[in-house]
Design goal:
single chain, 105 residues, alpha+beta, Conserved Hypothetical Protein Mth637, Chain: A, six-stranded mixed sheet, 6 strands, 25% helix
Length: 105
């Protein structure tokens, strides 16, 4: 199953976050989820905000286009990116994910 799917006019991304990391960034795959490392601690929604900001920057969309759909208090989350297609997301993340995100597509 692919971590990237279409839902209406938005793209859903299954992610696994690792808070309190030494550096922030998209780290590759974690099973069937995209692994995202965050410097922020999971306190006062800081990790969720950083996760959305980081993904918005990686995808080249405004911060307001990315939001947490499910799993706000969990390490496993589903993020929603509006105004994109699954292929555009795969292309934007291809340098980090390589062919791994294509597996279930």
């Amino acid at each position: 199953m692919s971590p990237i799917s279409q839902k209406g006019d938005a793209v859903c991304l299954a992610v696994r976050v690792q808070p309190r990391s030494s550096k922030s960034g998209v780290a590759g795959m974690h099973g069937e989820q995209i692994k995202i490392c965050l410097k922020s601690a999971p306190v006062d929604n800081a990790a969720n905000k950083e996760c959305c900001e980081l993904l918005a920057k990686a995808l080249g969309v405004p911060r307001s286009s990315v939001s947490v759909m499910n799993g706000a208090s969990s390490r496993s989350k589903v993020l929603k990116a509006e105004g994109l297609t699954p292929s555009a997301v795969r292309e934007a993340l291809s340098s980090v994910l390589g062919d791994e995100a294509e597996a279930g597509a």
